[in-house]
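REQUEST ID: PR-0412
SUBMITTED BY: lab tech R.K.
PRIORITY: routine
TASK: structure prediction, single protein chain
INPUT:
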Amino acid sequence: MDRSEFMEGLRGGFPVMVSAAPFGALFGAVAVANGQTIAEATLMSATVFAGASQLVGIELFGHKVQPWLIVLSVLAVNFRHILYSAAIARFIRHFSPLEKFLTFYVLTDPQFAQTVQRGETGRKVTFAWYAGFAVIIYFPWLVMTALGGVSGRLIGDPKIIGLDVLLPIYFMALVMGFRRKPNFIPIVAVSAIASVLALQFVGSPWHVSIGAIAGIVLAALLPVEKQAVTAPSVEQEA
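STATUS: complete
OUTPUT:
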């Protein structure tokens, strides 16, 4: 494994780790409050590794909802990962079968965005880089889940100290990183409107998938504009 590529991945994933860590702790606290042990909460973080769907799942567990509904709800939240996998497939064709399995296992929103940006600016997506980016997010997520389970109610509501804005801000930055793509504004607008309406009339977590599907449908219907080939910007390489 290329050490320099791995270290570059670590540096790229560090800001994500900082913004995601409080939510790992929050999940640990919520999970223990809903009857899970610290070990069970940490195991869920290790196997599911998706903050939003973990919180949805654990809340449903706490209300003793039917297992099939829990699975369906988690699938609704994580449906976008199917699209992520298809989108990055062209950049990881050279990965071995085992590397591809690990790649999709740790695929997250920021990992997807950075992989696409790296690939589309002509830089090779190496497994060493991908692994470095993932490792610095994955293992602190597990540690923070355990710490959250230990501290329990001491964490409280992240809104009180403003932690709830960290991930939304980061995700907004990820979206804006694609702002030069053809048809960016209408697709994002339709996706956002559909998601808000779905939240009001259908409810969570279905608004996530509905908003994504609305954006995909519009993207498929709109003509693709040809972009001039330009050198990658500093922002894209950051």
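NOTES: Confidence is low (pLDDT under 50) at residues 228-238.
REVIEWED BY: pending
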